[in-house]
Structure prediction request, 153 residues.
Amino acid sequence: MARQTLAMIKELTAHLIEFEGMKTQLYKCTSGKNTIGVGRNLDDRGISEDEAMILLGNDIKIVQEELLERWPWIKDLPPRAQMVMMDLGFNMGVPAISNFQNMLRDLQSGNWEGAAINLLDSRYATQVGRRAIYNAHLLETADDHTLPSKVTD
Prediction:
């Protein structure tokens, strides 16, 4: 293929957007394939690990902003407790955390053991199993102001 210039890539980008369109939600293309963006065929191509990490980074930022908007005091929690709140927001959506009133009260008052117990005493814990147990462990050890280096069983 001939050497591509930046100008040609820019023009091709505009051309593809013009004729493919740009959709930020999943849709079916004319051949029935799950598609997103500018004609990205998810059924046949999927996404790369790099693209998945970009999406993850964006989602983490969104969850963090939503949490801080709803509960500004979260920024004052130890890192492990913040990590649990981020994980809960990512996993179930920030609005659903409102159902954990006792856990939120315990978090705000620094009652890490109570927060862990309330987290485990939930439908969430029965649904996600090991994830809830690990998150409860992070809450129980929230006074350790370091982040764990990796998930352990």
Summary: The longest strand covers residues 23-28. The helical segments are 6-20, 49-70, 79-92, 94-97, 101-109, 112-120, 123-128, 130-140.
